[in-house]
Description:
- Helix content is 75%, strand content 1%.
- The chain is mainly α.
Amino acid sequence: MKVDEAVVGASPDPYQLRPEDVAEAPRTFRDALRKTGPGMILAASIVGSGELITTTTLGAEVGYIALWVILLSCVIKPAVQAAMGRFVIATGETGLASFDRVPGPRWKVSWVVWCWAIMVFMTLLQVGAMFGGVAQVMNLIFPAVPVKVWVLGFLALTLALLLGGGYDRVERIATIKVGLFTLVTLLAAVVLMRQPEFDWSDLAGGLTFELPGAGLATAVAVFGITGVGAAELFMYPYWCVEKGYARFAGRRNSSPEWRARARGWVRVMHLDIFVSMMVYTVATIAFYLLGAGVLHGMGRVPKGNDMISALSNIYTQTLGGWSLLLFYAGAIATLYSTIFAATAAHSRLFADLCRLMGFFAADDYRQRLRYRRGWVIALTVVPVALYWLFESPVKMVVAGGVAQALMLPIIGVSVVYLQHRYLPKELLPSRASIAALWGVAAVIVMLMGYYVIGEIRKL
Length: 459
């Protein structure tokens, strides 16, 4: 109770559009850059299990042949992300409230919202895998402490960090983490490419749009996780709301002032997406190249409790044995901050789901915080239990990734519908942007359709 009162007292409800919060968008690039942040929280979620575990594992399994999957995943999904952010700024609605408008079967909320909830419970396998991964690293450093004890320690740390903090804490931790491991991993990839045995023709073969047969399931999981995954697409509108983009634009009206102000904050949102895309794309490609160039040549695919030991070769085989502790530090920062960012976001979304189902009023911020705290506990305890049950981080990440990949077509089609049916005309994007959104949705549907048909044929 005291935590709730402190947070409420310090931070007015970020989900309400108040006239006193209206502000003009920054006009210079430097000032706009200072207003970014939601994308970096997403990058903290992205540069985690997807890159360190699944992307590297895909490279270890199939070599460079699936590089195009990585690039495609990183560069096309921001079109959907931008459309969702635009909708939030234009309407002031949360992400789940927007998807609740999609027609079709419903029980209290739309079928799309229920699909999201099912997907999140599947992605808890990924979070459990990250608890296991970071605990494995700590066990390698301090072998006297069992893995399961480390898991409990990180569970307690997560609860301590998230039960009493708001948006600013999440953004600060996420930003520090993103820079820590990404730069070192990029350095390792550059060292790899400068080695005499590195074959640039093999790298070029990864851009031939060929799907690897043996690694198809992992490739689809990578498409679902890397870049902005389905889970992150649902998260982004909430971070935009808490950053203040919708509040700064103000409640929609017919005035030219509102239109200019809203379009200004849309531009800031686009910059936020672009900066984060550059960060996670560079990190993702670096991880993939290291998996393909180091682990694939060694014939060593990360799996089970050998995952961290296998992955450490991407540093030690390029930078030297001295970098092992550096890899451990980076792995801890990468995996744990993803646990932190994902749990912070999902607890907000599930609290909002409870609001949409009528458990509390939209303007009752105190109740929203109470529900959010309850979901923080649930979304921390359940992944830990799942890890203790399965104890196979790579398989857990892949399972969650497939669930995210299968959700992407639903998101793509729903966002196209929302943009054409409900986006205020004052904030409609250019024809080129509309065409790009349609194109991205079509690519996602076709790629996922290809995967589903392939799996059906195996039956």
